[in-house]
Amino acid sequence: MTENLENEEKQESSKFDFALWKARAWNRWYWFKYRLRLKTQKYSSRFFAAILVLCYLSTFIFLPTFEIQTHPFFENSFKGITELLLSLGCALIGSSAIAFSFMMFAMQVNIERLPHGLFHRFSSDIKLLAYLTTAILLAFSITALSLIPDHSWTNFAVANSAVGTLAIFVLFLCGYKRALYLVNPSKQIQMILSNTQKVFRIWKKRSERARPIFSLAEDNSAIDIPLRAYFDMNSLWTSEAVTACNHAIAFADKYAERGDYEISSKALECIALINIEYVEAKGATFFPSNPFFHTDNSQDRFIRHTLELLRKHIASGLFKKDERHIEQGLQTLKSLSQIYLTIRYPSEIALKTHANLARGYLDSSINNVLPHEMDDVVMNGLRELGDLSIYYSLQARPNDLVQFADRFCHICMKRLKKPNPLPVIQIASEQFSRLSLSALYNCKEDTSFLFSQISYHTLTLSTCILTTIPDNPFATNHSNYLSAIYSPMNPQGFMDSFLKFSVDIANPESQIVANNEYVFINILQWLEATTADHIKIFNLAANAKLPFCIDLILWTTSIIRGLIHITKSPNFPDDLLENFNNEIENFSRVFMHTEESNEVYSHLARNHLTEHLFYCCLYAQQINNQKLSQKIAATLYAWTQKAGKYETSWEIAGEGILGICTLALITDNQAYYEKVKEQVILLNEKFPDNITNSAKQYLSEAASSVGRLDYSRSKIKTALNSVEREKRSRFLREVIGLLN
C-alpha cells in the first residue's frame, strides 16, 4: 500500500514538474516574441536598408570577378540586355516620379490644416525626401547601365540592376511607411515633443559651456545665478517650446472638436511633458513670490503662457458643452501643478508660487463649470483637486493645503443652492476626508491652523446639510450626503481609513512612523482642532433628534477607540501621552453639551450611547491604559448623572450604573470599588425615587441573571458575563443596597 502511494506521489510530482516546465517555457517564448517585436519595430527599416546597401556596394566590389566569369548568353544577347536595362530604368524613373508625386500630394492633403510651422516641417521631411530621391537616383543608375561598353560588363549590370530594382521597391515601402507615420496625429505630436526635448538638451549643454563666463568668485546663493544670467541674456531660449505648446494645443482643440479624445489627450500630455523638460532645464533659477512686496523675478512667461493656453482650451469646451474636452483640460492643469511642485526654490519654506498659480487656474475652471449644470465634470474636478492635495501634503507646507478645504466648501455651498446636489456633495466630502488623512500621514510641520480650517469648513458644510436637507429614519439623507466623513458603513470613509491608520501606527515596524516622526503631533493637533466644532455638529443633530445621531455616535466612539489604540504604539512619545489622554477625554465629552430634555436623551439612549461609551472605557482597560480608562469612565458617570435623572423608555440610569460597576469588577481594585460606591451614593441623592427604583430593578435583573447574559446584545452585560458570578452578584447587591 505504501509503495503504491509513493508511486502515485512520484507520478503527481513528475506531472507537476512537467506542467511547471511547460508554463515557464511558454512564458519565455512570449517574452522572446515581445522583445523581438519591439526590436523589429525599431530596427527593421535600418536592417533592410543596410542589407540593400551592402548588396549594392558588393556589385562594385566584385566587378573584376564579373568581368572574368562572363556567361556565353550575355555575349550573344548584349544588345538585348542593354535595351532591357534602358526600358527598365525608364520605367523605374517614371514609377518613382509618380510615387513621389502621390506620396507628397497625400502628405499635403492630410496635413493641410496643421499650423504653418508644422505643415512646412512635415511636408519637407528629410527621411521621406531621402527615400524618394534615392529611389529616383537608383532608377537613373539602372538606366545608365544601358551604356556599358561590351559584354564583359553584363554580369555587373544585371546584378546591379537587380539589386537596384529591389532597393527601389523597398524604398517605396519605406517611403509609404514614413508617409503614414507623418500623417498619424499621435506620431506628429510625438515628433513635436522629441524636437522640443532635443532643443532643451541643446540649451542645457550651451548653458553649461557658458557657465564660467557668468560664475562669481563667491557664490553662496541657493539660486543658480550663472544659469539664470545666461537664460536672461538669451530670452528666446523657450521660443521653440512656446511654439510646440501652441501646436499641441491646436491638436487638442482640433481633435476634441472632432470627438477624437485619444489624440487630444496625447496633445495635452505633450504639453505636460514639455513643462517637465522646461522645469528640469531651468533648474534652480526660479524665484518664489513675496507676500509683502511685488517682484518680477517670480513671474515666468512660459508657465503663464502654458496656463493661458489651457484656460482658453477649457473655455472652448465650456462653449461647446463638451464634458470630455473640459475634463481633459482639468486633468492637465492638475498635472502641471504637480510638475511645478517639483520646482527648486531658494528656501524650503518658500511659497509654491507656480504650483499655486496652476492650482488657481484649476480652481477657477471648476468654478466656471458650476453654472453650466455639468455635475460629472465638477465631480471629476473635485477628484483632481483631491489628488493634487495629496501631492501638496508631500511637498508643500501645511498652510498651503488650507486653500483646498476652502475650495471644497465653496463648491459645496454653491451647489447646494441648486436641486439634486447629492453627487457633488458626496465627492466633496470624500475629498475633505482624503485631505485630513493625507495631512495626518505626510505633514511635518505645525498643522494646527490647517486642521482648524478643515474642521471649520466641515462644520459649515454639515450645518448647511443638517438644516436645509430634510431627513427621516428611512431616507437617511444626511448619512448619504456626509457618508465619506461620518458614515461608519463607508469602507472608503474617514472613520474606516483612520482605524486602519491607527492599527498601522501601533505596529512596532510601522513605515508611517519611520517616514514621519511628526505623525503623533499631527494626530494631537487634529484632535485639538476638531473637538470644539464636532461638539457643535453633534448638538445640532441631537437637539433636532435627527437619525444622523447614530452615525455621529458610532463615528465618535470608533475614533476614540482608534486613538486609544495609537497610545499603545511602542513608538508613541512619552511626553505626549498626558496631553493625548486629556484630549481624548475632552473628545469623549462631546455628548455632554446637548440640550437637557427628555426627548433628546431618549433619542440618544435609543442609539445606545451608554453602551458605546462603556466600550471605549473597556477598550482602554484592555490595552492597559488605566488612566485613560478612568477618564472616559468619568465621562460615562457624568452622562449617567446628567441624562439618568430623566424618565425615558430606555433605562439610562440603570445601564449607566451597571456600566460603572462592570468596569470596577473587571479592574478588580479595592480603591476603584470604593470610588464606584461613592459615585452611586451621589447618584442616589440626585435621582428621583422613580428613577432610583427603576435602576434597582435593572441591577437586580443583571445580578440574578444566570444564562441570559451570554446571549445579550448589550455590550455591558456581555462584559459583565466575563466576571465570576458570585463576585458580580455580591457587588451588585451592595450597590443596590446603596440605592435604598
Question: In words, what does this structure look like?
Answer:
α1 packs across α7, α8 (185-214) runs antiparallel to α10 and α21 (494-506) runs parallel beside α24 (549-566). The longest helix has 60 residues, at 2-61. 39% of the residues are buried. With 740 residues, the protein is mainly alpha-helical. Among the domains are: 421-590; 596-740, no CATH class. The chain is 77% helix and 0% strand. Residues 66-70 have low confidence and may be disordered. The chain has helices at 2-61, 63-68, 72-76, 78-110, 116-123, 126-144, 154-183, 185-214, 225-233, 239-258, 261-282, 301-320, 323-341, 353-369, 375-395, 402-416, 422-442, 448-468, 477-481, 483-486, 494-506, 511-515, 519-543, 549-566, 574-588, 598-606, 609-622, 626-643, 652-667, 670-686, 689-704, 715-720, 725-738.
Give the termini separation. 79 Å
The number of strands is 0
Which descriptor suits the 3D outline? elongated
CA-based gyration radius = 40 Å
- Give the biggest beta sheet: none
Helix content: over 70%
Unreliable stretches covering 5 or more consecutive residues: 66-70
Strand percentage: under 5%
Class from secondary-structure proportions: mainly alpha
Tally of contiguous helical segments: 33
Overall mean confidence score, pLDDT? 84
Summarize the structure.
This protein has 740 residues and is mainly α.
Please supply descriptive tags for the structure shown above.
740 residues, mainly alpha, 33 helices, 77% helix
